[in-house]
Amino acid sequence: SLDTGPDVEAAYAGRINLRVSVPTGDVALTIMKLTLQENNKIRCKVQIPKDTSGKGYASTTLVVLVAPSPPVCRIVGTTEYFENINMTCASEEGSPAPTYKWQSYTVNNVPRPNPLKATDVNGLLSLYNISIDTSGFFVCTSQNKIRSATCNVTLAVMPPSMKLGSVGAALIAAAVIGLILAAIGIYCCCCRKRKEQSEEYTMG
Ligand SMILES: *[C@@H]1O[C@H](CO)[C@@H](O)[C@H](O)[C@H]1NC(C)=O
Ligand SMILES: *[C@@H]1O[C@H](CO)[C@@H](O)[C@H](O)[C@H]1NC(C)=O
């Protein structure tokens, strides 16, 4: 209504300005202090009393632009030979929604293509049957039409012998304990025998 001004929701109080010019048929909506809340379709509806012919509305899409926040890179899985691991990358903010891409570098920081079997889908990089050759730097770029931001993870693939090493240590510990128990057993038997013998001598 032109007389009472626009009916404004509390969330838009003081942030909305509607300029109406009846002679030119022009209505201008101004939104101030834009937030992602307004990242939406906006419809303009015209109502003329008793006029029902024609199209009474038109709509447009308002895209609020927000630069991607620095993404967070993570390694998910065990970084040992022959394992399959995932690398995740995500920006908390960004509008339109950022797209993600991983770039891999050798340990000497030389760019290289991702391994043949690897997949890079929407920030999720999957690496299969990793080895020492998979070690290096992995940089994820999060990008939308405004800007891009990156994160960088270092992958150091360890030989599985590290795991076998601890199993080996456990086996050695078990063997040592076994030997000690055996030694105690032998010592006791000998002592008892010697005692029995000395008793026999005494009796004799
Ligand atoms: C994993 O890679 C090794 C060589 O690095 C190869 O010998 C082995 O067959 C591969 N395993 C699978 C399941 O592809
Ligand atoms: C990733 O990090 C490594 C080690 O901190 C650094 O040497 C390398 O230059 C970085 N790469 C990029 C593209 O930022």
UniProtKB/TrEMBL annotation:
In this chain the Ig-like domain maps to 70-156
Name a GO CC annotation attached to this entry: plasma membrane
**InterPro entries from the UniProt entry:** A33 (IPR042474), Ig-like_dom (IPR007110), Ig-like_dom_sf (IPR036179), Ig-like_fold (IPR013783)
State whether keyword Membrane applies.
yes
Q: Which residues are listed as membrane-spanning? A: 167-187
Superkingdom is Eukaryota
Q: Which of UniProt's keywords are assigned here?
A: Membrane, Transmembrane, Transmembrane helix
What's the protein here called?
Ig-like domain-containing protein
The gene name reads gpa33a
